[in-house]
Amino acid sequence: MEEDNAQLLEHAHSEFKRQNFKQAEELYTKFISSCLQSRGCGDSHLATAYNNRGQIKYFRVDFTEAVEDYTSAIQTDSRSETPFYNRGLIHYRLGFFDDAKRDFQQALKLNPDFEDAKVSLQQTLLDQQHKINRGY
Questions:
Q1: What is the pLDDT of residue 136?
Q2: On the CB side of 41, how many CA atoms lie within 13 Å of its CA?
C-alpha cells in the first residue's frame, strides 16, 4: 500500500475512533477512490474502509448505502466476519430474516466464537418463527 494511502487510512481510523463521522466518512471515501484507481491497496485494508464507512452510514440510518458498503467489503475480502454480521443486522432490522440468517451463519462459519452473531442468529430465527406464526 502506498504511503499516502496508508496515512489516509490511519487518519480515517483516527477520526472514526473519535466519532468524527463526517470527517471519517470523507477520508474513507478518498481512500477507497484512491485504492480503486491505483490498485495499490491490500484487500483487507480496502474491505475495512468499506466496512467502517458502512458503519457510519448505519449510524445515520442510511441502511441502503450501508448495505452497499458492507457488500463491497465482502466482495473485496470475503474472509472477514464483520461485514457479514453488520449487513445481517440491517437485514434483521428491515425484517429480511432469510438474508439476515444467511449473513449471521456466514459470520459464524468464519468465526465460530463470534458471540454477537450467535445471539443475533438465535433472535432472527425466533422472530422469523413468530412472523410465520402470525401469518405474515
A1: 75
A2: 26
